[in-house]
Amino acid sequence: KAGVTQTPRYLIKTRGQQVTLSCSPISGHRSVSWYQQTPGQGLQFLFEYFSETQRNKGNFPGRFSGRQFSNSRSEMNVSTLELGDSALYLCASSLTGQRNTEAFFGQGTRLTVV
Amino acid sequence: DQQVKQNSPSLSVQEGRISILNCDYTNSMFDYFLWYKKYPAEGPTFLISISSIKDKNEDGRFTVFLNKSAKHLSLHIVPSQPGDSAVYFCAASAPGANNLFFGTGTRLTVIP
């Protein structure tokens, strides 16, 4: 079956702009989580959506937001981009999002803010 | 504040020998731990997990050991193979929360 698909793979934006990233989970998976990966911080949890509802949120400013559609596809939006937002953004899908169910990661979207 | 720490950014091991990757955590509420492997240009893939009710879990060449009193876990790969060369992340979660706290990763290089 198809894996987790993230688009676009690479993105260059200017400070102050906003950006939307997309994640299509594995068919049948209802939970989508987003992580930010930076060299010094590892992967940090942004938020998790389940059945179109944000179920869990990490410690990121309100500039980072997301949503999930009825087909479980999810989008992540970052407004007023800052240089420090440059990172690899990963999404992970799982059947239920419960921690004993395996999460499958996409290849990520590499965002560069200049 | 990094609640899961991998203090070795890199590790090199000869093929056939044992690779030991270490991970420390600070949050005593963590009770479920995972290891992920990441190749360049790919997302992390799940490798092995362990619940805090156990102190060891084995899956083929991979074994994870958990020392709750020391808040330390380790991943042993025996024997190491060149295809194991990747970045390894440990992760942890607490009861009632389904998000993962990741370490910063250790790059393992297995030398043929």
Question: What would you say about this model in short?
Answer:
The complex is a heterodimer of chains A (114) and B (112). By secondary structure, chain A is an all-beta fold.
Any overview of this molecule?
The complex is a heterodimer of chains A (114) and B (112). In chain A, 0% of the residues lie in helices and 53% in strands. By secondary structure, chain A is an all-beta fold. The model of chain A has no long low-confidence stretch (mean pLDDT 93). Chain B is an all-beta fold and 112 residues long. Helices cover 0% and strands 54% of the residues of chain B. At the A-B interface, β4, β5 and β10 of A face β5, β9 and β10 of B.
Helix-strand blueprint:
The complex is a heterodimer of chains A (114) and B (112).
Chain A: E1 5-7, E2 10-13, E3 19-24, E4 31-38, E5 42-50, E6 53-57, E7 64-68, E8 74-78, E9 87-94, E10 104-105, E11 109-113
Parallel strand pairs in A: 2-11
Antiparallel strand pairs in A: 1-3, 3-8, 4-5, 4-9, 5-6, 7-8, 9-10, 9-11
Chain B: E1 4-5, E2 10-14, E3 19-25, E4 32-38, E5 45-51, E6 56-59, E7 62-67, E8 72-77, E9 86-93, E10 101-102, E11 106-111
Parallel strand pairs in B: 2-11
Antiparallel strand pairs in B: 1-3, 3-8, 4-5, 4-9, 6-7, 7-8, 9-10, 9-11
- Summing up helix and strand content along with how strands pair, one would put the structural category of chain B as mainly beta
Helix content of chain A: under 10%
Largest sheet descriptor of chain A: 7 strands, mixed
Work out the strand percent of chain A. over 45%
Work out the number of β strands of chain A. 11
- Measured between the Cα atoms of the first and last residue of chain B, the distance is 38 Å
Helix content of chain B: under 10%
Q: End-to-end span of chain A in angstroms?
A: 37 Å
Roughly what is the average pLDDT of chain B, rounded to an integer? 94
Give start-end ranges of low-pLDDT stretches of chain B: none
Give start-end ranges of low-pLDDT stretches of chain A.
none
SSE topology string of chain B: EEEEEEEEEEE
Sequence of secondary-structure elements of chain A: EEEEEEEEEEE
- Shape descriptor of chain B reads globular
The biggest sheet of chain B amounts to: 6 strands, mixed
> What oligomerization state is this entry in?
heterodimer
Cα gyration radius of chain A (Å): 13 Å
Task: Give the chain pair forming the largest contact, with residue counts.
Answer: A-B, 27 and 24 residues
Q: For the CA atoms, what is the radius of gyration of chain B? A: 13 Å
